[in-house]
Design a protein that fits this description.
265 residues, Jelly Rolls, 5-stranded antiparallel sheet, 4 helices, fucose binding, Galactose-bd-like_sf, lectin, FA58C
C-alpha cells in the first residue's frame, strides 16, 4: 500500500509540467459533476483522481454518460478562480470507443449558476476539438489561445452531425487542468529583512509542488507580495511584505529556500 501511494505521488509530480514556462498543474480530487451516468453510482470524480490508465473496467476508472443526453457534459469546480491555460484529456485505450471524444468544447465560467445547472451559454469556450483521436494522440491537449479566468470548467459535446449510435456517448478517463501565472508576476529571488515585530505572514501552505505553484497561490490574494518556498519540504509561506518575522531566519537560511517577489503590474 505504501509503495502504491509513493508511486502515485511520484507520477503526480512527473505530471507537474509547464506548458508555456508559467503554467502549473492543479491538485486532484476536486468536486466534479457529469450530465448522466452509464452505470449506477458511477462518480464524475473518476475523471479527476490522477488515474490515467485508460481502461474503463466496469466504470471503475473512467467516466461515461448514459447516452441519452442532448448535450453530454462534465464539470469541475476549482473552488476559486484561476487563469486557466488549458487541459490534457486522457482518453480510453481499451476499445474503439476513443473516437467518441470529438466535437468537444472546453468552457470556463465564473458564474455559480453554471455549476448549479449546466448551461453552455454561461461558459466561455476557449477550445473546440474536432479531431479523430487515436491511442497515439493520448493525452489530447486542449490549450486556450490565452488564459481564461474562471472557477468552473466544463467539457461538453456537440452531437450535431454525429450519426453513429455510439456517438451519443461521452467518455474519457482523466483530466489534467493547467493554470497560468503571467510572466509579469514572477520576479527573481530577493534578500529578506527580518523583524521581531513583523506581522507580514498571511498564510502557511504545505505540499506545494514548486515555487511557481507557491507564487500562484500568492497571486490569488490581493495583499500577497512575497513567498518563501522550501524545495525539500514543499512548504510555502505567503507574506505581504519583504520584512518577515525573525522566526523565519533559520528557514530562509536553508540552501533549498527561496524568497520570491510577486509583481502584479
Amino acid at each position: 500500500m505504501e509503495k502504491s501511494i509513493l508511486l502515485l505521488f511520484t507520477l503526480l509530480n512527473l505530471l507537474f509540467v509547464r506548458l508555456d514556462g508559467r503554467s502549473v498543474l492543479m491538485p486532484k480530487f476536486l468536486p466534479a459533476k457529469i450530465s448522466s451516468q452509464h452505470t449506477s453510482g458511477q462518480s464524475a470524480e473518476l475523471a479527476y483522481n490522477g488515474n490515467t490508465d485508460g481502461h474503463y473496467v466496469d466504470a471503475a476508472q473512467c467516466v461515461l454518460n448514459s447516452g441519452s443526453d442532448t448535450v453530454p457534459w462534465w464539470m469541475l469546480d476549482l473552488l476559486q478562480s484561476y487563469r486557466i491555460a488549458g487541459v490534457n484529456v486522457w482518453n480510453r485505450l481499451d476499445s474503439t470507443d476513443e473516437v467518441r471524444f470529438t466535437q468537444i468544447s472546453l468552457g470556463i465560467s465564473s458564474d455559480a449558476a453554471a455549476w448549479s445547472s449546466f448551461n453552455e451559454n454561461l461558459f466561455k469556450r476557449c477550445f473546440y476539438f474536432t479531431g479523430a483521436p487515436t491511442d497515439a494522440t493520448n493525452p489530447i491537449s486542449l490549450t486556450c489561445p490565452s488564459p481564461v479566468v474562471g472557477r468552473y470548467l466544463a467539457l461538453y459535446k456537440n452531437r450535431t452531425g454525429l450519426t453513429a449510435i455510439t456517438q451519443a456517448y461521452f467518455n474519457f478517463c482523466e483530466v489534467d487542468v493547467y493554470v497560468a501565472v503571467p510572466d509579469n508576476e514572477v520576479a527573481n529571488a530577493i534578500q529578506p529583512s527580518y523583524s521581531m515585530t513583523s506581522i507580514s505572514l498571511i498564510a502557511a501552505l504545505t505540499q506545494m509542488r514548486s515555487d511557481i505553484e507557491c507564487l500562484l497561490r500568492c497571486s490569488q490574494l490581493t495583499n500577497c507580495l512575497f513567498v518563501l518556498f522550501r524545495t525539500a519540504t514543499l512548504e510555502c509561506w505567503l507574506f505581504q511584505s519583504s520584512i518577515i518575522p525573525s522566526s523565519f531566519a533559520a528557514v530562509a537560511g536553508n540552501a533549498d529556500a527561496k524568497l520570491l517577489a510577486l509583481y502584479n503590474n
